[in-house]
Every structure is written in structure tokens, then in C-alpha cells.
Amino acid sequence: MGILNVTPDSFSDGGRFHDRDRAIAHGRAMLDDGADLIDVGGESTRPGAAPVGEAEELDRVVPVIEALARDGAIVSVDTMKPAVMLAAIAAGASMVNDVRALRGDGALEAVAQGGAAVCLMHMRGTPASMQQAPEYVDVVADVRAFLMARAGVCEAAGIARDRIALDPGFGFGKTQAHNLALLARLDEIVALGYPLLAGLSRKSTLGAITGRPQGERVAASVAAALLAVERGASIVRVHDVRETADALAVWRAVNSGELAHPLRA
Ligand code: 9MG
Fold this sequence. Notes:
Number of helices: 11
Strand content: 5-15%
Bound molecules: 9-methylguanine
Structural class: alpha/beta
Helix content: 40-55%
Distance between the termini: 34 Å
Largest sheet: 6 strands, parallel
């Protein structure tokens, strides 16, 4: 899953239509690099990020989703707002990626009514409060129990089990030790039987391990994606699609014994 943030800090050169074209071009480039799915978001979930109004978020994401879906791409929408979920689905999105796991007013109904798949992510608190001394009895057991409960709520609301993916929410209300425990024991969440999405790309835990700033965490992000897939993740949410796809091709070749592009002897 390639990350496509349609936010001013990601693409802006001051012109709305030009920014939109650049975002669409970046989505297409990630597909060429090997992404199977593009996650389009118009509001940052980083702590301290300014909230975005519904009209503004719609204006950012809908034209980009329409363009990529028209190309035949599989698109998900990263949003917490029911109106954006419904508009994105109408524009061609086939999955809703909600960091609040459909706990917001109207979100559950929007996905059940819209007929899309959903990724339910664990987050302690809100994006503004989540890093204030997060504590767990056992982070893996707590996150697992939360995700199992949310999947149950979704199924009871009419969202079919095969339309649900789960995500432990690396970095969302977790310390670095929590993030590492979740990655080390990811198989315990995979064991719930739903596809698992892991998002570690360029996150601060990788910065803490390597001492590198965000723009220099490609190798660490690829390593983390590979570890997640090895532990059973079905989807990895990444910025660096080409590098991740290459690493996964090597992993797959070793595990299947078949080469995607056979070399001449
Ligand atoms: C929007 N967003 C930022 N980080 C994320 C993660 O780890 N998982 C999901 N599902 N969404 C995320």
C-alpha cells in the first residue's frame, strides 16, 4: 500500500490544481513501482497537525481518488469523517482506512452502507493526546482485544468478515518499547484470522533505533516492512514502494523458490 498524502506540506507549490496533478502523478508512480493499492489521505493524523474541515478534505481527496480509480487502481481512503468515506466510495475507493476504527459518530453506518472494505486501526486516545504517557498491561494482548472487539462490532453492523482488515497502529499511543513488542509479536494479532495491515514507514521508532531523521529512514522502513510480512502481515503501508517491493520480491523468491524475473545462467 503506497501512502499518498494530499496535504499542503506534501505537494504544495501554491497552486491547487497543480498540487492535485502532482498527487495523481505520485500515485501513478507508486503503482508503477509495484504498489497494489494506494491510500489517499487529506488530513494528517500526526500529533499536533491542524484539523481539516470536511469540505476541504473532500476537495483534496475526491478528485485524486476519481483519477486513480479511473486508471483501474485499487484505492483506499484514509479518513475519520463519514461524509468523506461515503464520497470517496462513490468516487471509486474500495477501502476505508480509519485510524479510529469506525468509533466516530456515523462512521460504522457509512462503511456498512457504502459497501467498502475497512481497515480498523488501534489508537489510544486521539491524534492530539495519544502520546501522553501511554500505558498498557500487555500491549499486544490489549491491542488484540481491542481489534477483536471492533471487528465484532463491525460484523454485527453488517460489514462482512472478509471486508475487514486489522492494524495495531504503530506509533499511535505507544512508546518505542510498545511498538517493538507489537512488531515482535505481530503473529499473535495475525492469529485472529483477519488480514493484517502494518504501518511503520519512516516512523519515529525507526528514528530512535537508527538515530536518523525521517527522510533517511528508507532502509529501516524496508527492514520493518519485511519483518512485519514475515510475521504474517498481508499489507504494508509504505512511502518507499520501489525499495519495499524489491525487498519483498527477494523474500518471496526465497520462500517460494521461484524467481519473478528468472536470470539467465
Ligand atoms: C493514516 N495512517 C498513518 N499511519 C498509519 C498506520 O500505521 N496504519 C494505518 N492504517 N493508517 C495510518
